[in-house]
Design brief:
Blueprint (H helix, E strand, L loop, with lengths): L7 H28 L5 E6 L12 H25 L1 E8 L5 H9 L1 H12 L11 H11 L10 E4 L7
Length: 162
């Protein structure tokens, strides 16, 4: 959606889903670990590869995801110092999900424009599927990543370098 056409209600919805809901969940988590005196753990937020890349028609979405990535960095410091909690962000490209497929069915012209725009920059020339994120999520959740804190990791088939 073009920047000039983003209404207050659409902006509020995008911010609620992509930033406020994860923010609130992280607060609940932090209060729980404080209450039960837990030390150690990890937060993994899912942002988007376009949280740092200027794009047409995605200003509200990309800004909401950039805010989420910044929240992860702030939590890496604050919760890291207090509770040894690590916080990182995964930044995927387009993920082929049921929601995405519904969008494609309902608006094939928009879907084609969207896919062409993003696939044109992706070195591996395929869309992600949810399973592409599993290995990184497991790694970031494991003891093998105990010194990885406050980072953003792209899973994008080369989009962010294209």
């Amino acid at each position: 959606m073009e920047f000039k056409n983003v209404s207050e209600s659409i902006l509020d919805e995008i911010l609620m889903v992509n930033f406020k809901a994860p923010f609130n969940l992280c607060q609940i988590f932090a209060k729980g670990i404080e209450k039960y005196k837990i030390q150690g753990g990890t937060i993994i937020n899912i942002s988007s590869v376009i949280d740092r890349i200027g794009t047409e028609e995605y200003a509200a979405y990309s800004c909401s995801k950039a805010a989420l990535a910044q929240l992860s960095r702030n939590l890496a410091i604050e919760l890291g110092r207090l509770f040894q909690i690590r916080s990182n962000t995964i930044r995927p490209d387009i993920i082929k999900t049921g929601i995405f497929e519904n969008i494609c069915e309902n608006n094939p012209e928009l879907a084609k424009k969207f896919i062409d725009r993003f696939m044109g920059r992706t070195g591996l020339k395929r869309m992600l599927v949810p399973q592409d994120l599993i290995g990184l999520v497991l790694f970031l959740s494991s003891i093998d990543s105990q010194m990885i804190n406050g980072v953003d990791i792209a899973i994008d088939g080369g989009f962010s370098i294209g």
